[in-house]
Amino acid sequence: MIAFRDCHFAYRAHAADAGVPVLDGIDLQIRDHEIVSVLGPSGCGKTTLLRMIAGLVRPDRGEVTIDGRAVTGPGRDCGFVFQDHALLPWADVLSNVAFGLELRGVGRVERENRARELVQTVGLAGFERAYPRQLSGGMQQRVGLARALALEPSTLLMDEPFGSLDAQTRRSLQDDLVRLHAGAPKTVVFVTHSVDEAVRLGDRVVLLGRRPSRVEASFDVPLPRPRPEGLDSVRAFVEMKRDLWARLRSQAEAAS
User: What is the pTM of this model?
Assistant: First the structure.
């Protein structure tokens, strides 16, 4: 389980800077193998939450723990998928997927075998020797997902990974994520600006307030897995999206 306990954080240009408060007492628990979607206004600290779980930043006050152990720096249990793919432009698909394994000292044959399996799993068989510039945005994001999964993390952190993609590709990758999670469950923390995506993917949706933010609300998604066909016409799906939109609209009006 991932737990935030009274976490505060401010961005500072230098150590003596008072900083810009971003998080103001975050309390949140994320259960094992749960997909949690995180929504909130721009600049409210959604990405900062992911970075804290990964150990890339530490709270100014409070604590983040994973399975009861304090997160004090980067660990091996978290895989990160970014919006901008962050692929190595000089490396082919296979090398990009195997990059983290290479850094960990895994032998060439083992890491390439693992990379080939994952390239096939994410639907890119036949593109092993293609370079990022030869791939569409959706294909590049599949490479990024495979690279994160190669390390076999217990937690997958996803920072608006499908935000820049067209609607059709975005839906396809959403389906891929759900399929992969069903086959090998992991704890997934998924940051998004899309209410539809948050409800469609999440077991739970966490809504952050305006900066400096706290957890404004947390909603269990009342939909079974696998999600039913024709989700857009399912009453519980429509009503939950409407409620979240109303809350986000209220935040925007309060800020104006």
Answer: 0.92
